Amino acid sequence: MSKKLYIKTYGCQMNEYDSGKIIDVLQSKEKIELIDKPADADIVILNTCSIREKAEEKVFHELGRIRKFKEKNKDLKIGVAGCVAAQEGKNIFKRAPYVNVIFGPQDLHKTNDLLEKSSKIPVVETTFDEIKKFDHLPDTMRTQNSAPLSIMEGCSKYCTYCVVPYTRGEEVSRTLDSILLELVNLIKNGATEIILLGQNVNAYTAVWEGRQIRLGDLIQIISEFEQIKRIRFTTSHPNDVDQNLFDCFRAVPKLVNHFHLPVQSGSNKILTNMKRDYTKESYLKIVSDIRKIRSNIPISSDFIVGFPGETKQDFQETLELVEEVKFDKSYSFIFSPRPGTPAAKMKDEVSKTEKQDRLKELQDLLNQYSKERSVELGGTVQNCMVIGKAKKHDNQLQARTECNRVVNFESNSIDLVGQLVNIRIDEVLPNSLRGSLQT
After folding, report:
1. 140-177: per-residue pLDDT in tens?
2. Most CB contacts within 10 A, which of 17, 34, 166, 394?
3. Domains and their CATH numbers in the chain
4. Mind spelling out the 3-state secondary structure of 122-183?
């Protein structure tokens, strides 16, 4: 008899990857049925993220909703995983004593053992053995055409606003052999697109056959696998962009024509206060260098608005940077003070209303350039990776362009999932594209 699992994932692709691994671990012991609602679950796991403000409150709100199911089913196991678990630890029990197990990102390979132990007493496991988990994770049995693959854990940059080093530990890269073993397993389960993941993915480094390899080398090695048609990576730090990566963009056609490179601010003063350790000028040099290799490459980014001490002039410099680079689809947020980070103690005199106004102005400008790029795609033929069925139309499939835009198209009842196909973009919509298959 199978166990019913409800798992909710908060945050980034790294957490989505971790949730998949939690599923793999549970399935290695017994049959697991994934369900969409917690009411009928045998196991509920919330895989949390603490990057944004009020992340903890969202988790406790969800736990409060789940509590009523625990009252009806005393055998229901409730687990809190991820960065909030690592950050709050046993404090979670104080507000939600009905939780059975709390475990951090580096302990997900212990999920079965922790759940078993929690039958007797509540269990907390929040260690920082970043790489050991990869030595104990079972092979996946899940079909994934576009498959995430974590190549490193943690971050050593210690940006003043960021909680990652405190919840996931410092940067540690996986060995090449470990990565390739997982890659082969993903290929066996249908992967044709690989998304390389890391909190600071382009800091990846390892020793292989007596030489040091970097992210660019790893991408070139993965590109040699015939079954892999497309490669992505996220998220990068400007300080670790090197010639090795530039050479990879030049030499590997399978590497998508898209570059996500977080900048956070266009003000050198704010970048210094954030401890980003680069300047606006050095960031623009990277943009210039990559566009010498791929002149039309879309560049997306991350932005923080209203960082402590940000003046109107600092914000204006961010807008000027956006106008110069013309970023594609990007992420932007109001500054969130995270517990234990230096920025949480900085004096913040910018009002909430001013921050909201600035965010809207920035997002309007970002959306303008993103829309312009979408319009440019109209009438062109794009090489797209088919990723599954369209969400709103049963008779259509969904694909992604190299610049990560969703395209819905009529498949003519042909199973094309996992394949690269040419699609003419016929219609540009606010959040997606519509196209027709080219044969």
Report:
1. 988 899 999 999 999 999 999 999 999 999 999 999 99
2. 166
3. 3-125 (3.40.50.12160), 378-438 (2.40.50.140)
4. CEEECCCCCCHHHHHCCCCCCCCCEEEEECEECCCCCCCCCCHHHHCCCCEECCHHHHHHHH
